Amino acid sequence: MDSTVLCEGEHVPSSELLAPLTGPDATDSGHAVTVAGRTLTRAELVDRAGALAQRLTGAGSVAVHATATLETVVAVTGALLAGVPVVPLPPDSGPAERTHLLRDSGAELVLVDDAAQAPQDIAAGAVPVIGLADLPHRPDGAWSPAHADPATTALIVYTSGTTGAPKGAVLSRRAVAAGLDALFDAWGWTAQDTLVHGLPLFHVHGLVLGVLGALRAGSPLVHTGRPTPEAYAAAGGTLYFGVPTVWARITAEPAAAGQLRTARLLVSGSAALPVPVFERLAALTGHRAVERYGMTETMITLATRADGERRPGWVGLPVRSVQTRLVHEGRDVAPDGQTPGELWVRGPTLFDGYHARPAATAEVLDADGWMHTGDIAVTGPDGWHRIVGRASTDLISSGGYRIGAGEVEDALLAHPGVREAAVIGTPHPDLGEQVTAFVVADGVEEGALVEFVAHRLSVHKRPRVVRLVTSLPRNAMGKVVKTRLR
Known about the structure:
Elements: E1 5-7, E2 10-12, E3 31-35, E4 38-41, H1 42-56, E5 62-65, H2 70-81, E6 86-89, H3 95-105, E7 109-112, H4 120-123, E8 129-131, E9 153-158, E10 168-172, H5 173-187, E11 195-197, H6 204-217, E12 221-223, H7 229-235, E13 239-242, H8 244-251, H9 254-258, E14 265-268, H10 275-285, E15 290-295, E16 299-303, E17 317-318, E18 323-328, E19 331-332, E20 341-346, E21 353-354, H11 358-364, E22 371-379, E23 385-390, E24 395-398, E25 401-404, H12 405-413, E26 418-428, E27 432-441, H13 446-454, E28 465-468, H14 482-485
Helix pairs in contact: 1-2, 5-6, 8-10
């Protein structure tokens, strides 16, 4: 079996997804992963995951009740070592959603931390349950990882389901490996790093990048349990992952933020990092955060490089082996830094399609291999990308103009009294749509915000309606759920 070779801190790609756990260093007693204060060495992780893999060999697919625990790390690792696809179950989902995910994916088993404490609907369901607490910590006799074909499925990760029932994005082992290797290249991520994050383990960000990335790179992982400023400050890592909400909370705690000055790289993703947060984070930590863009179906396709420029509000260039296009009404959009278009991407990191939904797959993945992301972006002449938002909610057609909601949100957030902002298009009898802003602010009136934006952007981009609210609806990753604003 191929193994990852580490030469002077560099990662050499391997066809085997978790090569450091299957190669000659698998018995290393060094730190592999800590979650909420509990630690497994690499050797202990291999033993526990190997014992589970021995039990799972031959299974079609398994669901993992993906809590932020060591047990989830063992469960996912064990299934992948057995060559069995993993279906992460969000622990905050309700019984109806979990039932849909289990039925739709065809999972044959559900792995939970402790069978005695499993949610009632899982325990009483038709799919057998295995509690990690009930399994041995070492394989029974001789055992070796499965020789899985890189083209086989690693994960079936379900989308949020904002436009219907969640769909399962099928990610191959090859695509996951390609995506992670591209990030190792972009961020200089090696076994000498210690990764720190506190993100959920049922999304691509927290699970694929934040767990499998560390395991594939051979770097220690510290998962803080919850992504609090105090936990990030105490972790002592070199590489930190967070979403904008995490970084905003850290900037509100200057003492905690100051502890991150010893880090090598701060990475923000899952939503656009507001420019004011970028600037406060730079002032408090000495780090201009790296931003990146991706989605469940593509993994990370755009990123700012660790050895390159950092531009607030921009997500950088395509990662290695990925191509992009901006398209509007069937034509490529000029890379002028102003004109928005739908982002299309192509490359080895793309998913294989939606599980058992060929029609849904054909809607977003064309015959030439381009994924139509549904996200709106602009590109500059130098190839840098800025994400404007979703075509369904963030591209506003008003009086013949196409307006990106993200640009207006950035302008609002530049006001010192504004803490949060979300912009959508709402019906207007003359313009078609009008720019409507929902704003969390202190000591500022609606009219003043309209004028503030009008002085910074073209007049047609100013909000015609501003609604002051106490909070914005967000999902588990901190993204604003704009469909609820409507």
